Inverse folding.
């Protein structure tokens, strides 16, 4: 009832306003004022407001970055970021100049030349010289700017030196996982069909592949048996669903058998250089550490949808795309500890966050990044458990692999952490 | 009768003594084939859509600035399901962000802007009785309406509307396991887009054919008003770009429904490794942005056209550099097809391609800057009548400058790494084509309202509307640049990050307050608009003393536009304040005097 009353009052009020404004208009019209004949005082007012707005606008533009300066990121934590920051500085100066020039001209002229009955506009349809000037000057400036930009871009995206430290950043809804190479210094091959709770990145070793195959075969066999048992009783659509599931399992088994053959062929040809033999000593962790002043190649993969690895303090960003590996170069130059001093914030952490909408918890897909001295990084790294202590081999473990496994066996603390990792999912 | 339904080009051009046909309510107002009525249909539909999208933006801005706080406003629109306790949930937050973008870009600034002004102005300004094909023109609106209804209906499905952002990148948009909006909501989104594109293509083809074939005697291409040039090029860009989006959308539909793998490869989700192999989401991104980038020019070109016309008329000065303006429109249209991958600098695309696209993208700023300098020179030493249309046109130039300058930042591949997908980009494109085009659209409505409804809109309300909108637009998007230098977008809340507290949130509060002011000030426009339809002052034939042909038609807005024979054109449309003329305007239909030079 109350709502109805309020609505009625609103409707009536609206009608009253309508009528009143109609009366106001009629009286204006009777006074000879028509909408298309805008009186000089209204034009003057608009002109003055143009000036006022122009001034307030320019003032706000200058005031805001001063007042809200702590919104800006601190000094760049990476070499690449320093190049980008320098280029921003150059760009801000040029663009700032054009910004003030054009906006001041626009609002000044607008306010200056409001309509007066005794004036006539200046007939000025074109001036080729002038137009040439503002074609050529922007062209030259822009080309210079973009050549500078492309030089920096090429530096940032250049192929890394061979032997550069590689770190894999792996994304899934809604967290990050990291992979470091083991003793061999190389990251092993992966396949998404090997992903299990124990193997969150799908690293391929002879063992993970054989285990996964066995599990899938068993699953397929069980599913087939269950279906056959219920063949008569199940409704048609459920049966079809089951058939699809079994076909999917069988297909996966087929494909993994193909992968197995591919792996063995590759090992036969490349021997120890085969990427299938590099996975066992990899280190999978939920912690993200990088050594300072060391060029790093970050490799990105994604499990489910597109994410974007965004490191604002490093001025760095790359999408992670399912089905392909993307990469960037990054050379951190300031350790987390130093940055805490620089920002006078003992809580400071470099942060990795997702910057491509990826689902409901997109807003909280983050991970801190610790940049530390090379020694501390090595110590941290060596304490990480290796992915597969057995060397990843079911049958054909070579003596070298076994040896590698022994030396890499480390810290029980780390092992506990590895076990905890799958639970986070 | 048949001639009126489907006037062949001959009959339309030479329909001397064209007479009004008796029309029923349905054929006049609903299934109308009259371009002026279709224009109004587009406008009103776009206004409804814009209102919905504007309300959405206020709702999600409230959540960003005041995370977790309860708002009756939010609860009123979303109810218990999507906003339990008046707090929007994460799913609907993404849904609103997605649909706000989709509606504003496609339904308001593409369908609404081109649909309204191409329909209204092309026949009137080139001196034609109607569009080349009235029936197809009618269909284009009805497809647009069906697409609008379908898009809105996706808001009411159980699993929610599409939630993958307005670009609907796969695999997120393919997998309902990834986000609930990728279920029925996404299906409706895709089919709505297909309908929209069909409608848009029919409209565009019609606009092109009409401009090329139905110009009245003497209306050479070099005598066309810049509005018509802009709308023609918009239509051409649309015809070339939209079909690519259809193919992208169709492949996406197949991936979703038929089990294909165009965009999918090596995906493990919900505990299962999918069978799909060999596809690539990057393929979708290329296809999408091959439309997506020309699309932003589809949005801004009509705005250029409208603003050129209004600035010249209201400054009582010829547009500065008419031919340069046409040339820059052409250059922008052509180059708009060579820049799409600048949306993909950080997707892992080959860095060499990044460099190429950074270069082409930066060059497109040249014709844009020519336009800005020419506008400023046009108002210089003008005699400016500040009608609401003129105010909005100056506002458009101002926001276009800001957005254009930040465009030079994001065009630079290396600089883009830092601000890609942040609020800096959001601020950039809202300035350069969101606010700029909306301002042009508003300006166009105020300026041509007499041609739409035969009445004048109220100027005082127009002033209020403009100044509040301008202040609100800058209040929203100026601070957003600063937020964006570190702030990722489409975040439900920033509470999980210590670095995003303090002044970062203060700025977000400022943005939200201005967004609410901006939204509320549109009520003034709505009130003025609908009131003026019935109660506005009766318009004279040529209220703004403009030169173009639409102002030679009678106020009554006849079917067929001119009661007698079609007007004949003798000069370009910008003879304002020409020396030696008694008035400060000369209609295009006035023959050149002996010895008078055509400019």
């Amino acid at each position: 009832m109350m709502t109805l009353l309020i609505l009625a009052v609103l409707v009536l009020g609206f009608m009253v306003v309508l009528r009143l404004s109609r009366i106001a208009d009629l009286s204006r019209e009777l006074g000879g004022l028509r909408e298309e004949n805008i009186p000089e005082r209204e034009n003057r007012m608009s002109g003055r407001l143009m000036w006022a707005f122009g001034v307030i606008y320019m003032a706000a533009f200058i005031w805001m970055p001063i007042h809200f300066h702590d919104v800006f990121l601190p000094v760049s934590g990476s070499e690449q970021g320093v190049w980008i920051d320098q280029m921003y500085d150059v760009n801000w100066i040029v663009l700032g100049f054009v910004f003030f020039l054009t906006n001041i001209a626009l609002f000044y002229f607008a306010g200056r030349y409001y309509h007066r009955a005794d004036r006539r506009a200046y007939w000025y349809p074109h001036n080729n010289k002038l137009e040439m000037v503002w074609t050529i000057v922007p062209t030259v400036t822009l080309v210079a700017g973009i050549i500078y930009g492309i030089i920096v871009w090429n530096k940032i995206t250049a192929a890394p030196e061979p032997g550069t430290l590689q770190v894999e950043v792996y994304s899934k809804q809604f967290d990050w996982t990291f992979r470091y190479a083991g003793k061999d210094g190389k990251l092993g091959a992966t396949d998404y069909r090997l992903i299990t709770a124990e193997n969150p990145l799908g690293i391929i070793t002879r063992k993970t592949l054989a285990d996964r195959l066995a599990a899938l075969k068993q699953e397929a066999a069980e599913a087939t048996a269950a279906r056959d048992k219920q063949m008569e009783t199940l409704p048609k659509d459920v049966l079809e669903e089951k058939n699809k599931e079994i076909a999917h399992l069988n297909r996966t088994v087929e494909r993994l058998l193909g992968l197995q053959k591919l792996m063995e062929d590759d090992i036969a040809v490349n021997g120890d250089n085969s990427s299938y033999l590099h996975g066992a000593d990899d280190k999978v962790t939920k912690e993200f550490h990088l050594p300072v002043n060391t060029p790093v190649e970050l490799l990105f993969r994604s499990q489910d949808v597109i994410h974007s690895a965004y490191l604002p303090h490093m001025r760095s960003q790359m999408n992670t795309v399912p089905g392909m590996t993307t990469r960037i170069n990054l050379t951190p130059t300031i350790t987390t500890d130093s940055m805490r001093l620089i920002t006078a914030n003992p809580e400071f952490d470099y942060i990795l966050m997702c910057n491509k909408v990826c689902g409901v918890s997109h807003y909280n897909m983050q991970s801190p990044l610790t940049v530390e001295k090379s020694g501390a990084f090595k110590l941290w790294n060596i304490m990480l458990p290796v992915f597969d202590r057995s060397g990843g081999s079911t049958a054909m473990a070579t003596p070298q692999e076994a040896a590698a496994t022994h030396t890499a066996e480390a810290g029980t603390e780390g092992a506990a952490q590895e076990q905890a990792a799958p639970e986070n999912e | 009768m048949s001639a009126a339904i489907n006037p062949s080009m001959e009959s339309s051009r030479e329909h001397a003594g064209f007479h009004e046909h008796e029309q029923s309510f349905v054929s006049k107002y609903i299934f109308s084939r009259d371009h002026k009525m279709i224009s109004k249909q587009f406008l009103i539909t776009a206004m409804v859509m814009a209102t919905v999208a504007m309300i959405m933006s206020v709702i999600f801005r409230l959540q960003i600035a005041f995370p977790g706080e309860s708002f009756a406003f939010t609860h009123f629109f979303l109810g218990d399901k999507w906003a339990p306790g008046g707090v929007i949930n994460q799913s609907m937050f993404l849904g609103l962000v997605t649909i706000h973008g989709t509606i504003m870009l496609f339904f308001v600034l593409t369908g609404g802007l081109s649909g309204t002004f191409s329909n209204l102005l092309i026949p009137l300004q080139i001196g034609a009785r109607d569009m080349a094909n009235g029936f197809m023109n009618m269909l284009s609106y009805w497809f647009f309406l069906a697409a609008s209804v379908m898009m809105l209906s996706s808001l009411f499905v159980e699993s929610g509307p599409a939630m993958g952002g307005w670009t609907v990148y796969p695999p997120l948009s393919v997998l309902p396991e990834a986000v609930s909006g990728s279920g029925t909501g996404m299906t409706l989104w895709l089919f709505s887009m297909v309908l929209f594109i069909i409608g848009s293509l029919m409209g565009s083809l019609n606009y092109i054919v009409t401009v090329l074939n139905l110009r009245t005697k003497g209306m050479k291409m070099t005598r066309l008003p810049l509005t018509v040039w802009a709308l023609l090029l918009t239509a051409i860009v649309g015809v070339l770009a939209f079909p690519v989006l259809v193919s992208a959308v169709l492949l996406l539909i197949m991936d979703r429904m038929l089990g294909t793998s165009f965009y999918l490869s090596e995906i493990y989700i919900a505990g299962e490794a999918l069978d799909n192999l060999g596809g690539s989401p990057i393929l979708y991104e290329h296809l999408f942005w091959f439309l997506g980038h020309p699309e932003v020019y589809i949005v801004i070109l009509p705005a250029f056209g409208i603003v050129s016309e209004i600035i010249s008329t209201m400054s009582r000065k010829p547009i500065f550099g008419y031919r340069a303006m046409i040339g820059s429109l052409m250059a922008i249209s052509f180059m708009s097809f060579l820049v799409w991958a600048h949306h993909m600098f950080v997707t892992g695309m080959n860095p060499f391609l990044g460099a190429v696209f950074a270069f082409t993208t930066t060059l497109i700023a040249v014709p844009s800057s020519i336009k800005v300098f020419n506008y400023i020179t046009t108002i210089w030493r003008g005699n400016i009548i500040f009608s609401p249309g003129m105010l909005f046109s100056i506002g458009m130039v101002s926001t276009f400058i800001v957005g254009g300058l930040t465009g030079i930042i994001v065009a630079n591949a290396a600089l883009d790494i830092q601000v890609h997908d942040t609020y800096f980009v959001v601020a950039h494109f809202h300035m350069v084509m969101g606010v700029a085009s909306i301002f042009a659209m508003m300006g166009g409505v105020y300026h041509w309202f007499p041609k739409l409804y035969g009445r004048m809109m109220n100027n005082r309300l127009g002033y209020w509307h403009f100044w509040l909108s301008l202040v609100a637009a800058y209040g929203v998007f100026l601070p957003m640049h600063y937020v964006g230098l570190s702030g990722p977008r489409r975040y439900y809340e920033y509470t999980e990050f210590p670095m995003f507290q303090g002044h970062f949130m203060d700025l977000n509060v400022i943005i939200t307050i201005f967004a609410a002011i901006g939204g509320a000030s549109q009520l003034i426009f709505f009130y003025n608009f609908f009131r003026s339809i019935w109660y506005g002052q009766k318009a004279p034939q040529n209220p703004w003393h403009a030169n173009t042909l639409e102002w030679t038609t009678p106020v009554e807005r006849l079917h067929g536009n001119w009661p007698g024979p079609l007007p004949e054109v003798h000069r370009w449309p910008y003879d304002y304040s020409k020396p030696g003329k008694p008035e400060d305007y000369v209609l295009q239909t006035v023959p050149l005097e002996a010895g008078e030079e055509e400019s």
